Amino acid sequence: MISTDREAIPQGHIGWLELTAILVVMATAKIYLIYSERMLRAGATASWSIPLIAGVLSLGWLLPLVHLLQKYPGKSLIEITRQLAGRPLAWAFGLVLFAYLLVVTATALEEVATILAIGILPLSPVRYLALIILAFAFALAMLGLEPLGRLCVFVIAGAFISIIVLALVSTPTWNYHHLFPLQGLGIAKVFAAGAISQAMYAEFIVIGLLTPYIRFRSGKSARIRRSVKWAWASSILIFTTVVLGVQMILPYPAGVNDAAPLLRAARELYLSRFFQRFDVVFLFFWIVAAVAQLAIGLYSAGLALSSAFSIHNHRPLVLLTAVLSLAYVQYVYDYSFTVVLDFDLMRPSSTVFVYVWVFVVLALSYLRRRPARGGDKAHA
Fold first, then answer.
1. Residue range 56-68, pLDDT digits in tens
2. Which residues contact 186 (CB under 8 A, 6 or more apart)?
3. d(CA 102, CA 305)
4. pLDDT, tens only, 9-53
5. Which of 7, 158, 232, 272 has its CA 20 to 30 A from that of 168?
6. How far is CA 106 from CA 294, 339, 348, in A?
7. Which of 211, 191, 251, 255 minimizes the C-alpha distance to 54?
8. Which residues contact 48 (CB under 8 A, 6 or more apart)?
9. SS3 for 272?
10. What is the rounded distance in angstroms from the CA atom of residue 249 to the CA atom of residue 244?
11. What's the pTM?
């Protein structure tokens, strides 16, 4: 019998590495296809600084969230809310979280399907592409959290490799003049854009749902902090590198007038007669990342609803989320409306939501000053 230092992960539970990968995929998958264009519009030539500003400011709610999860080990954020504030407030926050994850999943589904129809499969109907993508994402979500976490580890490895390779092979096409003026539209406007763009890290709120499924022999609180720390740093690195790479290859007017600037930047590469179309290599990882993000969104939305109303089986709610997401694509067939709903309405609102939820629960925890009891036993 071979023994290892790390305790085996029970069926249906994940380790800190899988949790980190899930958080990074959930937050960063959007940057590979469409989100880089929104960053370019927000910051102009200073777009590369927006993920840095937003990442630092997002610590304002991430650190209190980690503190809450450490103070009440083994409990989800919804369970902590129920314990401190009662069922009505837990229901309210749980429903809002479900609505947020549903909108994230539905809009991401239409955005990915539309980008594929525009840039890869121009003769394919968007609705059929959305159905195929959703089928894969739903199958992954139904497999459970552990297989999904392992897939996300693979996705993160592939994403980092693709970004590094893209950076190396694109060096002959870099143009530093695209980064000037460094202040973009102005220091105040760039900082304001960074503050609003904290929403790019709002998906980290799913750690409040996944905490009960983390199992370690000891030091669970330290592992949660480690997962958030690595996920936060990795996400900032991916966001900044992708936006900076796009800026170095494409001039600002070209970047903001393309639905998927990173894909166009990859297609600009031409090393020789036999080394062309690098986008095909990178696109595989980017599509897998998008499907994994959809699967995490489906799983988390079902988990949020089941946690809010104490429903033991969350799988039917995952199916409900998938049906609602597909219905959105089938009946609200408007890409412009989807972009406005996602980036201009939902994401700024999500920043307000996570701040309000975290600080309300944090304030209640200090007012009551009652330590959590039996958190681990409840989920043993």
1. 999 999 999 999 9
2. none
3. 11
4. 344 578 889 999 999 999 999 988 788 888 888 888 899 999 999
5. 232
6. 8, 11, 17
7. 191
8. 179, 240, 243, 244, 247
9. strand
10. 9
11. 0.89
Cβ neighbours for 292, distance < 8 A, ≥ 6 positions apart: 25, 29, 137, 140, 148, 151, 152, 155
CA 78 to chain centre: 20
Q: Which residue has the tokens 């902090």?
A: 225
Cα separation values, 325 from 106, 132, 203, 329, 330, Å? 4, 13, 17, 7, 9
Q: Which CATH superfamily is domain 16-362 in?
A: Amino acid/polyamine transporter I (1.20.1740.10)
Tokens 């089941």 belong to residue: 306
Closest CA to 110 of 330, 343, 379, 367: 330
Give Cα separations from 17 to 22, 292, 299, 327 (angstroms).
9, 16, 18, 34
Reduced to 3 states, what is the DSSP secondary structure of residue 215? coil
